[in-house]
# Entry
Amino acid sequence: MALQIGSVAPDFEAETTDGKIKFHDWIGNSWALLFSHPKDFTPVCTTELGALAKLKPEFDKRGVKLMGLSVDPVDKHSKWSEDIKETQGAAPNYPMIGDTDYNVSKLYDMLPASTSGDPATRTPADNQTVRNVFIIGPQVRSATTRRRRSIRRAGNRRNPIFVSCRSRSSGSSLRGKARQHVLVHLVMPGLVPGIHALEPVHGCRN
# Structure
């Protein structure tokens, strides 16, 4: 079943580039942005992860934690991080899940429950539905979700994927403000540094 807005985000344990984590404990009282990519070393994903690394201080100011995911193993993520740093000027400074058993992808309805086998044999096309952004608020409730398309728009621009949550009044940290009205800003890859609202801004409540 797809994750519904306002529902409790599924908890899980997973191996990440920062060690083993239990998702709900890792979120704590923060907001979280969980984003997934179909395969390590794909060019657009490389750009996106580097851009998020540069934007992380802005998310930190707003009490938002970042976590990435692909079905490739953690040791491959580490090698990919080196490539991201070399090509984008910044390596991921947030944990990346190695979802090699597809557990998280299935929990969050990114892959069918029947998915199995060696992730190394899977192509980006096999994992094309692992292109999601989940915004999860305090009390680990889903604020919104977004599935990204794999096609290009006119002008060679892709669908926006980056999200920043901040208070309407001051842009201050949302930590501990579970009922605070939130603005979600969708940011196009390449617009770094800074956060720019490029689509209509939608209000959401935890």
